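Researcher: Please translate sequence to structure tokens.
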Amino acid sequence: MADETKRPLKVFLCHASGDKPAVRDLYKRLVAEGVDAWLDQEKLMPGQDWRVEIPRAVKESDVVVICLSNKSITKEGYVQKEIKFALDSAEEKPEDTIFLIPARLEDCVVPEQLGRWQWVDLFEENGFVRLLRSLKLRAYRVGATIEPAGYESEDQETEHRLDQLYTEGLAAFYTEDWDRASQRFQAILRERPNHENATEKLAQAERQRTLAKLYTQATEAYQSENWTGAIQALEELLGKSGDYRDSVQLLADAKKRNQLKELYAEVKRLHAAQKWQAVVKVFEQISIIEPTYPDPQGLLGSAQREAAELKRLADLNDLYRQGVHKMEAGEWYEARALLERVHKAQTEFLDTEGLLRKVENEITRIEELKKRDNQINTLYEQAHGLIRSKSWRMALDKMEEIQRLDNQFVDKDGLFEKAKIELEQENRVAQRQNELSAMYAEATRLLKEGKYQEALEKWEEVKIIDPKYPDRQGVQRTAKKRLVEVDKTVERKRIRFSVSQKRILPVLVAVSAILFGAIGVLILNARPPIFPSCTTVTSMNDPLFVESNLTSSLIFVDGKITYPSEWTNSKCYKIRLALQPPGQGCGSGTSSIPVEWFLMNDKQRLYLLIRFLKNDFAPAGIHFSYFYPYPYTGRWQFSDSMAFWVPRAFDQYGWDETEFHDDTSNGGSMNTRAKSSYDNQSYWFEFSKPLDSGDGHDWAWKLGDKVGTGLTGDLMLGSFGTSPTVGESYGCRLIQLQLGK
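Model: Translation complete:
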């Protein structure tokens, strides 16, 4: 007898509405065991506010059993609120309290928020027993009881339990839950092996489970068009049950589909072998089996067209043969008429275009010679005009174009040599100006750092090279003034004379060093350039990874090698730029051009030297651009580019998907240095730009940075110009750059 002073254990059953049948069975079993189970359909009275009663029931329960299935874990609705009520209540309990029990009704994932509590699998044979054990432990701790209603005898209790299992097994059997049905009948037979009905039903359930698995396997294969797998599964299924559902029809249809699939595969094989008549015949077989069978690749129409095409080609070949024979006989006009008929019917038939060009060349050869002479005369007059306007580079281009037209052309006025000499002189002047600018900038820097004697000496070096060079920053005046102030301080210490001697001696040494240095530069410039070994990159996969070496060399941005070791410490790469007509986007072409690329940086600036061979590409300009942010969304306000479009350099920013903007147009400054030169073999482009100019428009890089990774932005090296094979074109590569430090 139950202890009348103790109450039954209160258990709240939290569940999704789709699991109601299984949870109702659980409710009945718990009640039969003496548990005060709370199920909404059983406990809620008509007229009660369930939004009030359910949270109250959770609060008053000794245990909350959360029933889980593949339906409940993905379902939105009030069941999620019930779980939250239970979780909140569980947080109020001591850590070792059995209050919240996840119970899986089937094999499913336990939600993360319930993962800390050990769950029970009710679909397993001993699942309910394990649940009941935990409930009894909880009952003991809260002073409650779990005792089933009494029976007159132990046999009656056993009969009741077996009857309950048999009822559950039948319910699962008729709902086609074969796994559950088998579990219930097996539980009965373990306790009563001679239970006739359970034995029969277990055999039926296991047979139906096997048939259902085969049917599922067959339908899945059928739906995925795995006809061989479907046929095997259906034949095995029908061997066990000759009339299972629609298996007979499915098998017939699967065999039909498999036959059609094999025939269409044969069509594709014959089509690939160009056996057009055989393709048509197999399609006739397919049409008999399935008149509407799809031909997604259009193989039938293609085969029919190819058969017709064979006859057309035979006719064209006859006309082509006649035209060639006319050419052999020297009958050029008759040959042109025949070949034009072939060309009109099919533009690229055999070598029709080449033969027509030969015919036209023979007919118009004299006129072409006259036209070439007129073109040369026009180019020569243009070269005269460019010489008068002192456009030396463009004049040389005109003369080279004349040489390409007629390599025997006589330059009676010596325009080529004059333009070449003047261009070299212009480059020397620019080089000298760049050198002086760099030296003066160094003098200014030394002055700002308080190195007055060194600043004055650097200024004297400038004056030695160019006595008229303007001292716009007042280096000489300021340095001398500061040195006088130092002298006064020294005089107060009464060591003026010795200090003066010590100061005069470095000046004399510095002047001597400058003179010897100038002589050394002249000697060095007579030596050939010293280049580093180059890494050859054959892959065209973007982005291309390159590095720049950290250097302390003095770099003169003059578009050429100023002194032999100027670029010795650089990093060199032999790469190829993807080439395509302008406007088609980077990397869309199939051609490429070779480029030699030298890179280095000091602590303030990035330096690039780029070389194109004359016979590979004639560049009109180069750009090295940084696109940020990435991916490409909206306007790229922070995009940046240094570029050189003949004849001047550009500092640009703010790519808006159509063009860059001039950096100086909106508060920025001109930070790009760039020059180009041409030495009859190569085009040279030399660039320099600060790693971080500080004007808010340019890139802001630090030593050791790796840029162009996609996450930090994209780097691109590109060039517009003329290719011997593509014509006017654009070459480019996406770049990843590692700055030296």
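Researcher: Any highlights?
Model: The chain has a mean pLDDT of 84.
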